[in-house]
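W.,

You were right to be curious about this one. When I first looked at the sequence I had no strong expectations either way, so I just let the prediction run and decided to look at it fresh. Below is the sequence, 123 residues in total, followed by the output.
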Amino acid sequence: MKAIKNDITNFQFATPRAVQDVTGVDKSAMERLLLLADFSVTLNGVMNVATGASHDVFKTVPSTSVARTTTIAFTEVGGSTVHTLANEVLYTDYPITRGQDGALTWAVPGVLSDGTVPSWTSA
């Protein structure tokens, strides 16, 4: 396990559920069933040459099919409860951008890999 939180500048994640329309002809509004859960994430960060942590984690994305445990955790403001969302994720790309100022940044997308429903835990 390698912590890369120092290299991440921002991220977005989603925990959508698929739906199936099951509206009968006798209805005037939509009826739907909830189906499978999913998870996706995009981590955005900077190439930190001092530690190389994020590059070590993502440099094998193009050449391997390895699920990586990805954990999102936060503590409520003024509280002590830590909320955690951990998933097994397949990262699908490792694009690196060089800005005009010479900065190297990356935006790595990932998707749920193992069929486990994304669930928050609190401690």
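Here's what jumped out at me. The longest strand covers residues 82-91. And, maybe more interesting for your project: The chain has a mean pLDDT of 94.

Coffee later to discuss?

I.
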